[in-house]
Design brief:
2 domains; 4 helices; disordered N terminus; mainly alpha; single chain; MYOD Basic-Helix-Loop-Helix Domain, subunit B
């Protein structure tokens, strides 16, 4: 365990990060009070101790991660728009894939019209698959009967 006042592997003291997270100048160091919720102020003096078992990660690093996750932006603050654009693009791709899958499903189910809504497509596909399962069961039963008669 490191002594008080020792460096934390080059990371800034967690008390500074804690004041950045809270957005104010509240210095509740060592009191057990923390506005960030899961931060451990007792470990703020460079001890590098985390009750959650951080496996070598400093409290400052955990606090910075908590700060970036609470406001939804990266720690640098400049990557928010790029991440938002990537999210929008990924969501468009996901919707396009779903649309194509519904189109394929609609084409595979013979009883569906070209303008069927999604609920109808899924419901008719379920009915069609159950019908196919019954047909397979019936054909297997017939085959067993035929094989038993010829044996």
């Amino acid at each position: 365990m490191a002594k008080e006042g020792t460096s934390n592997g080059g990371a800034p003291p967690a008390a500074n990060v804690n004041s950045m997270v809270s957005g104010g100048d509240n210095n509740n160091e060592g009191t057990g009070d923390s506005q960030a919720g899961n931060l451990q102020p007792a470990a703020d003096k460079g001890k590098g101790v985390d009750e959650g078992g951080s496996n070598g990660k400093s409290t400052a690093t955990a606090a910075a991660a908590a700060a970036s996750s609470t406001n939804g932006r990266a720690a640098g603050g400049g990557g928010g728009r790029s991440r938002e654009r990537m999210h929008i693009f990924a969501e468009r791709e996901r919707r396009r894939k779903i649309k194509n899958m519904f189109t394929d499903l609609r084409e595979l189910v013979p009883s569906l019209t070209s303008k069927a809504d999604k609920a109808s497509i899924v419901g008719e596909a379920i009915s069609f698959i159950r019908g196919l399962e019954e047909t397979v069961t019936d054909l297997e039963r017939r085959k067993r009967e035929r094989d038993s008669l010829t044996a």
